[in-house]
Amino acid sequence: MDLIEKFESARPRLISVAHRIVGTHHDAEDAVQATWIRVQSTDLDEVDNLDGWLTSVTARLCLDQLRTRGRRGEIPLTADHIPGTQLAADEDFLRREQVSRAMLVVLDELSPKQRVAYVLHDLFSVPFEDIAAVLDMTAASAKKLASRARLRLSAATPATPESRDINSQLEIVEAFLSAARGGDIERLITLMAPDVVRTVDPTLVPSGAATLVHGARAVAEETRSFVDRIVVATALLVDGRVGAVIAPGGHPFAIIRMDTRAGQVTRIDIAPYVSGRAELSVAGQQKPLTD
Question: What is the pLDDT of residue 77?
Fold first, then answer.
């Protein structure tokens, strides 16, 4: 297998790594293309593990992208500030590659080095010795970064009464979103208390649309008008409460807070997304630091 074939064989993994770090398919493609340019100008005879080397180079280039954004004072853009063509491309990639929408939302809360350490180790099982080389630090320091990232992303630790309660509430939210996506009105009604209340910020709905809706059937029927948003919603924690984030292409647009009682949704509040509000659920893609 020649060099081009080897690189093309590695490209899907490199795109996956880059996408989780930089957050968009376009920027991930740029990073991987820059890696290919680096390959062509490097003597690879002394490279023992080509896949590992390619991953490290791609991660460094992604880290440079994140740092450049920081120097420019850029903040992660919400979906309403991103061109529709980019949102469509990112959404297509998420669905094709089965990328965690919730994970992409919360990754934006991390510092560049935390994001690289977390993505490489927790999502792609890269050893801390290799991550340390990417970040120009010791393996112990890289391990601490990943640990801090995990704490930042997760609202609670497993196996506590509170976490079990949160998980059961999140199951209700996920069931609600699933029924709404499928247009199952009767199922939605059973998931809500009869006197459920739904509020929404007026900036998120068309002029003249109701910002306050009462009753399970009325709320359930209303979901038919917002299926496009529900399809790109993902359950997670919002301000420590069960809820969801509407995030086309993995870019947050609005937050949905839900109150539950006795296995039913009692209140739904929808508001524009604000950074720092979302956290992964207790069961959300964690693994111990054993490397």
Answer: 67
Q: Last residue of some domain: 135, 153, 171?
A: 153
Of 159, 150, 106, 119, nearest in space to 15 by CA: 119
CB 57 within 8 A of CB 35: yes
User: What number of CA atoms fall less than 13 Å from residue 83's CA on the CB side?
Assistant: 5
Q: Which domain does 261 fall in, by range?
A: 161-279
Together in a domain, 8 and 143: yes
pLDDT at 6 over 70: yes
Residues whose CB is less than 8 angstroms from the CB of residue 123 and which lie 6 or more positions away in sequence, other chains included: 20, 103, 285
Give the whole-angstrom CA distance, residue 88 versus residue 84. 6
Q: Are residues 225 and 206 in the same domain?
A: yes
Average pLDDT score over residue span 74-83: 76
Closest residue by Cα to residue 280 from 122, 142, 140: 122
